[in-house]
Amino acid sequence: MSVVDPGVTTSVPAPRAGLSTADSSGRGRRSRGAGVNRRPNPWLMLLGSVVIIAVFIVPYAIMFIGSLKTQAEITRIPPPYIGDALHFDNYRTMWSSNVHPSDGLTATIVISVVATAIVLLVATPAAWFTARYTFPGRTVFLALVLIVQMLQPTVLAVGLFREFLQLGLNDTWIAMILVNSAFNLTFAVWIMQAFFASIPREVDEAAALDGAGRLQILTRISLPLVWPGIVTALIYVFVAAWNEYAAASIIMTSNDLQPLTVALPRFFGLYAAQWQYIFGVSIVAIVPVVVLFSLIEKRLAGGLTAGSVK
Amino acid sequence: MATTTAPAPSTLGARPRRARRAPGHSSLFTALPWLAPALLLIFGVVLYPAGYMVYTSFRKFNRIGVERGGAGFDNYQQALDYPGVNIGRVFLNTFIWVAVVTVVSIVISLFLAQFLNKQFRGRKLVRLAVVVPWAASVVMTTSIFFYGLNPDYGIINRFLVDVGILDSPYGFTKSAVPAFITAMVVAIFVSLPFTTYTILSGLQGVPDDVVEAAYVDGASAWQRYTKVILPMLRPAISIATLIMIINVFNSLPILQILVEAPGYDADITTTLIFKYKTVLGPGVASALSVVNFLVVMTVIAVYLAVLRPTKDR
To answer: Which of A212, B5, B77, B141 is the one with CA 20 to 30 A from B257?
Structure first.
């Protein structure tokens, strides 16, 4: 069952490119109907569904409803559950408020988009080559990739700060882009090489016979075959960069350059915190990521655990 | 960790064997251009700062962070024995934090995954709801609880009073122990999507006919779960636990944001590093970072040695 070739001792669950596990197993089950797989009690399932949705969504509902209150309503004692009116115009006025969401949002977007692009450009060739060829040092490279995954920006934050101090890069987006690309790179390499390894070699060989070079085989043949897997890995990298906090909190010191994760907490403890705006910005930052994650929902676990740590 | 075999999705058996054939050969010279950018990033931004941090932990710094020669183990001594910091308590907190958040998340996820693996109307919606805390930044999720638990205008506090659980609003974040417990609840909440989805992928690898066979043999639902399904979930649970230990250990924003209590009684080693960075400078912070990393490695080694999650049973 392992798609990782013999050079690696660990076998991982194979992330599969196009198919959805959920659907294929579900179809088999439905046809049986009786015995051990009899249909669950619909009312019990409904109750369970409602409870689960409530627990997971209520905090974000509090956030959304809060984002529609006035400053007076959201800091009133005791607080109203819902404001007198729904102030959707908060989503317009917040841009010129003290929270300065456009600064943080710009930083977050630039850092995570560039970091994800770098990961794509750097991880794809490395993953493809290690999946396709043996070469001296290949096992060492894959072991390095695994070990580095154990390290997180939090553990090395002080070292990163010292390094960027040395390079004069502290408090720059370049530093944050480097951190986010480097720490997500190994994960992407690991996942992608498992995907590439799942393509039968005959496909490459046929292309090579037709005179295609390695780069052409990678971009024209391999990538189109496993792109859903690559996209999954990239979305995961993007979300990790989007939400990174530890390194940014120590490297980014200028208020107007900080990404949202570091910029917003500055306002939490203030005497007259503008929670309606903080929540409005948060909703704006959360919604696109939820949409991205919902696109890869079916592959979220199977594909991801393949690449992590083990 | 050599023998871990994570569950494969059920249709995987159909994979053609030729996909596993040994890859072609190539020289290091040919390989290098393909790997060089990746190696550059790994060495430049992960391994170099790691080494530099170890070096920093043995250097002396003045008040404004300028290096002033070697320090021997002074930084380590200061990191572990700083006035006002009960380092034993910090280590105990770290242990409780990692153990409780990891174990509780996994136990709840076993139930959640079991539920989400069933066929029912609206399953897609429920699954999507479970993903949300994973997608949202931990900082933003924590901010909801920080606001909601404010004793004056916090909406969660008001709700707890309205339903009669509390007599009057309570300052959950104002003193060390309640703040720490609250932070653990939030940490569990944000961890559930990952652990649930990992276990769910394991459940999807459990073949129907094996469970069916146990049913035919007269095994009760509880027996089928504990004797058939749970053992097959072992690899998924081990992976989830391992990643959780690393993540929870390195968890920073929840405690940093939620705990408003002064002092160091609600700190874990990771949050203490960031306080030391501000108060005592890079030398001591690096020393504690090195200690912190050694502790994580020890915990993982103990986990692998004692529980043997990778041993096939």
So the answer is: B77
